[in-house]
């Protein structure tokens, strides 16, 4: 799924609107049998990521272009999000390393898939399930002046965050969200799609899917809403990152999560 920012502000607005459009899950990959479990459609591994039935631990391989690493605050917030939502008794490991730029920005999803082929080193092994997150040094190819993509969950264990875009947005407006807040929201939102939200691998327990935006929640202010709002705090209290609402959490719990 793609998480996007609509660049239209009211003069009295204290919000940045962030939406999410259709997913890309048809990316080309090498036909390596040992990697097949990590080359499945979006949502396929929802239960495996949420529960400890088949996998007792989770490893997130974060690969960032040099100079475009996520903030430590965002990584810590993301870890807390995972610990709150998944059952992994043997632990959650986040490995962050850097690579040289592929010099392909702006990117198509197919180009991101090629970069994953070149840079991903960790795949499911034993009872450890792995997820790949790439922090790109640029934007998505079809960005416009009205809609900018922040990230995409494009396969069952694959996410790209367009860190180059996030860095242009973070802290760009007085009272607006910080870079770490935008990174946190993008990471949490895209990983929640890997967890099967909304109705893309994790069955609905109630009717809360947005009929106008498949894969998203119709509850206002939910992390999985098609339009996410960052609210700048009153009296300089800071920004708040959207969280999952009770209905989304109920879906995850019914599919083996916390």
Automatic annotation (TrEMBL):
<protein>
    <recommendedName>
        <fullName>Membrane metalloprotease</fullName>
    </recommendedName>
</protein>
């Amino acid at each position: 799924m793609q998480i996007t920012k609509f660049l239209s502000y009211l003069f009295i607005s204290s919000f940045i609107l962030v939406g999410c459009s259709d997913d890309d899950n048809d990316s080309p990959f090498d036909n390596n049998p040992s990697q097949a479990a990590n080359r499945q459609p979006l949502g396929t591994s929802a239960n495996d990521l949420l529960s400890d039935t088949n996998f007792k631990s989770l490893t997130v391989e974060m690969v960032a272009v040099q100079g475009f690493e996520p903030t430590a605050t965002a990584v810590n917030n993301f870890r807390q999000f995972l610990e709150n939502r998944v059952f992994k008794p043997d632990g959650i490991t986040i490995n962050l390393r850097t690579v040289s730029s592929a010099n392909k920005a702006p990117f198509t999803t197919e180009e991101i898939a090629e970069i994953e082929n070149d840079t991903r080193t960790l795949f499911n092994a034993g009872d450890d399930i792995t997820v790949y997150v790439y922090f790109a040094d640029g934007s998505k190819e079809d960005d416009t002046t009205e809609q900018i993509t922040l990230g995409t969950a494009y396969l069952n264990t694959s996410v790209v965050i367009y860190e180059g875009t996030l860095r242009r947005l973070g802290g760009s407006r007085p009272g607006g969200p910080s870079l770490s807040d935008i990174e946190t929201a993008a990471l949490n939102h895209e990983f929640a799609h890997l967890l099967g939200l909304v109705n893309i691998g994790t069955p609905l327990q109630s009717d809360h899917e947005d009929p106008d935006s498949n894969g998203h929640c119709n509850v206002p202010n939910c992390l999985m809403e098609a339009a996410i709002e960052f609210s700048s705090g009153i009296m300089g209290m800071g920004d708040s990152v959207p969280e999952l609402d009770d209905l989304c959490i109920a879906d995850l719990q019914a599919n083996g999560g916390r």
